[in-house]
Each structure stands twice: as structure tokens, then as C-alpha cells.
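Protein modeling request. Please complete all fields; requests missing the sequence field cannot be processed.
Requester role: graduate student
Desired output: 3D structure, C-alpha cell encoding
Chains: 1
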Amino acid sequence: MPILEAKDVSYSYRNKYQTIEAVKHVSCAFETGQFYAIVGHSGSGKTTFLSLLAGLDLPGEGEIYVDGRAMSSLNRDHYRRDMTSVVYQSFNLFPLLTALENVMYPMELQGKSKREAAGTAKKLIAEVGLGEKIWRQRPLMMSGGEQQRVSIARALAVGGKIMLADEPTGNLDAKNGEIVAGLLKTLAHEREYAVIVITHNEELARQADVVYTMHDGELTDGGGEEESQRGLPPQPTT
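Delivered output (238 residues):
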């Protein structure tokens, strides 16, 4: 059974001038142990779809299932706190907390003691390739690559098996992008996460086991690595 599945999902919203059909009858499934990429041009609906997978809102039509249970029947606060985690392009670390405190935070929300949370946080920080010197540093003292790795460690602290990432290498240079891509791939293949990434980065998407392409709110299966190399959109210009 897929850990996460969308069945005929549609979602629309209204701005000042018109109703936007952001996601149109999307159906797909995500398994643990697999690395997925969702690609598409800006405005194609991929970020809206990711927000639905994250439980930030419910579809207007269709349903999202988590381990076979309808998202609409779940406590979505519990789902976001304990079952899934999101890694953002802008890192979204708490600026006044140290790296260690940032990673401890979700565990403390789950009721773990500070001592237990700190011990686990230190192990997770080491797992993403960072040393003890980072423990007491606040985000502004870290490089972009260090911040993103701390955000991945914080995501691991949630303890669920679903990791969603919105342009996780978008603010990183090539070297740090490769490091983060490697971490995400390892989480899928060695730690049995379902890793679902939205990206414009061709190199990151090529490493995915399955690539989905969104266009005007509709989702198509681009297949594995070989097929995905033919279907990636061009890099956005700056």
C-alpha cells in the first residue's frame, strides 16, 4: 500500500479577478524507499499540489490518502507534526534558535524531554554531515548549505516517513546542491523515506526514481531517470 496517494484531486482558489484551477484531477501514488521529483514551469500547480500533500489544505474534489486513511478524516495538525516534514528553499529555520535548538524543536512539540531531544538532535546533525561546532550557531552564522542540512536534520526529527521538499537546492551553489541531493537520495534508498521533491534543478530531478511533470495543473508520469532527462523543463532564467 502506498504511504501517500492522491486520487482524482482537484483544487481551485479565487484571486481578485478570477478563479484559478491550480490542480486538475491528479492521481498518483508514493511509496517508501523511493525518490520522486515533480517538475514543471512556474504556475503549473506543483507547489499547490505539494501543499495539499503536506496537509496545509484539503482538495476541493478527490481525496489524499495517508497509509490508506483519507486525509479529510485525519487530524491534520497531528499529521504535520508527527507523520510528515517539509524542507523549504528558504530553509525556514527559527532565526533566534541555535542549530541544535532548531532540530530539537519538533521533538519537544511531541513531548520529548529536552535531554532526550538534545541527544537525538546531535545524532541527526552528525548524520547530515555537520560537526559539533554548528550546535550553538544561529542561522545567520551558517552558510546556505549548512542551513539546509540543519533543516533536513530537523525534518528527520519528526520521525515520520514522508519528506516533502520545495526547491531544496534552489538557494544553494552547485557543491552544496550536490550534498543536499545526496542526502535526500540516501533518505529514500537507505532510510526508507518517501521523498517527494519539487524542483527546477535538472541534476536533482535526474537522480529521482520517478519524475512527474505538471502542466496547467495536470500531472503526467515522466518515468524513471532515462525518460525524465527528455522531459525536464528548461532552467528558469534570472
